[in-house]
Amino acid sequence: MKGIRQLADHLDISIGTVSRALNGKPDVNEETRRRVLAAAEELGYVANQSGRSLRQGETKVIGLMIASSKETVENADNFFLGVTSGLQSVFARHKLDLIMLPCPNDEDPHEYLKRMVARRIVDAMIISETQRIDRRIDLLSRAKIPFITLGRSLSASNATWIDLDFEGVAKRAVERLIARGHRRIAITVPSSEINLGYIFVEGYRHALEQHGIPFDPSLVIRVKSSEQGGYQAAHELLLLEERPTAVILIYELMAIGLYRRLMESGVMPGRDLAVIGFRDAPRSRFLQPSLTCFRMSLHDLGVKLGRMLLANMPAYAEFYSGDGRNTIWPLELVPGESDVFQVAVKA
Amino acid sequence: MKGIRQLADHLDISIGTVSRALNGKPDVNEETRRRVLAAAEELGYVANQSGRSLRQGETKVIGLMIASSKETVENADNFFLGVTSGLQSVFARHKLDLIMLPCPNDEDPHEYLKRMVARRIVDAMIISETQRIDRRIDLLSRAKIPFITLGRSLSASNATWIDLDFEGVAKRAVERLIARGHRRIAITVPSSEINLGYIFVEGYRHALEQHGIPFDPSLVIRVKSSEQGGYQAAHELLLLEERPTAVILIYELMAIGLYRRLMESGVMPGRDLAVIGFRDAPRSRFLQPSLTCFRMSLHDLGVKLGRMLLANMPAYAEFYSGDGRNTIWPLELVPGESDVFQVAVKA
DNA sequence: CTGAAAGCGCTTACAG
DNA sequence: CTGAAAGCGCTTACAG
């Protein structure tokens, strides 16, 4: 099947009528519509997207940009694939397709995005892994492409964003540890300029100060968000003069490496050092002792993300009037055995 | 910047010349070309892809279809993101972009692919997770779209495929275990109809028979390829009348759950039961005892996959004449401590 | 309810 | 070396 012309010739009607029938326009004879639909199905005709896009000025495709950096590959733990299902469940209602745009790791994300946007392959974009300063946001604003960011950014004053509740997680983790007598609480942050690290530390710092515990920069450990990073973090913890009694990890997979390094030194996680992780992932579910961490539904996050994006697109905004605001996505604490012990209070 | 028309008006030349200049055609005055390039850069002009595609009959986009099923999300372990970097390094040479097409889990993969193909969003397709019988292959053949499958299939007689060396892995694992005295060797296979499970078992069976060990169907354990599946597999192993002394896992993450279940019963992996995993992933690198498994470079696999695909595309075939053949991708054994002990040979 | 025609943004023979 | 024009496959006012 070549195109609408062939289909029209085959049915001996005009291409205009074929188009109207296929697109569900009301002013088509029902019998005609049936014939068109049947023939399209039989001959496997589907409208060429380039033709449609050119005429309509829209592609019905939404792009999700992901940085396929080595870091992301090791860490993302299928975070994006998880979010995808939620996004698609929203987009499907409007016959919008989702495509994932992996930015090559040797290409500048800003240049990559610029190219994708200019080519008009998508009608709207979702960007993620927002940096503290993220020029992509200015780019999208200027291009007047509807977009949303998964992650806050200092550049995001003219963007709508959704982000995980990093402050809330840091705060709850700190308070939970303080309640068990901890005073020296370490925290790990990513070594990159990704914005979430800054927010995480701010939440941590604020929670400490609320409880009268001074912030000690030596307890903030910058490592990669990977098992190797966890191993490294444990190594650094063990070298600290006054060893902390607890550590909060920004990424749960780090716990695997952290446990390993601790055990090598005879330090038992959950007995000698309290550990709280961030997001619970299937991988870490079998850790021993089980990891106290925070859970969320990636599917639900995807749904909200999708709704928020559509709220920013004129053609769909009416259906999602309640979804236009910036959102902090809550996480639920999953208690484990890695932080159950009490610290003896010093006399 | 609206389109080529604006840019041409701005430069006071015709759109034809602008197009030729931008596309590097030889018959353009160098000074003119410089002016056009500079103006395009300044005004941020990039050709609208729909216009190009419509005219040229190609999109310069390659699609990688992935099933975003719950299983894949939990298991894929960023396999696809890893392969992506290799693919892109090949495609970049020809200014081809890669997009990932995640099939919604409530949509039939065949229907999804049909839609994507018919819309002509991509010039060529890569499909993965091939099933034993996979109608997508017939669909792509009939649509005359260049494609390649990551994974063999019984349907693949008219397709070019690349696949991991499942037989080789099964064979080497079996032989390694036999050399250490094992006779009762269990194997896990996926519970789905994905073809690799069949190939894995065939390799296992063949290796056993070569060494005069009869194939025992009760040692083939069908479970999900996840940590939970590993847990379940261990559970079933422990229930077997004559307990096997070794197990080969088709997916390395299963080892986490398997270890856990074994330890709950006081069975020590690497001492009471030999374990060999499949692909080595960052997640399992910290297992104790360390897992004997097989390694490969996802990047290199992606490169080969990209080359093979281009070898099947008329426009690029000349550069990849040596890459057209079906390929079995080798894996390298990474010895660990999970299978080091010898089994006492029965008198 | 249907057909004929315009035009979306490009690229590319064709003329000059 | 450049311009004018055709046409890729659609959708959509417009006329009837």
From TrEMBL, chains A, B:
Domain HTH lacI-type residue range list: 2-56
Keywords: DNA-binding, Transcription, Transcription regulation
Record bears the keyword Transcription regulation: yes
GO molecular function, one term: DNA-binding transcription factor activity
InterPro entries assigned: HTH_LacI, LacI/GalR-like_sensor, Lambda_DNA-bd_dom_sf, Peripla_BP_I
Name of the protein in its database record: DNA-binding LacI/PurR family transcriptional regulator
Native species: Rhizobium leguminosarum
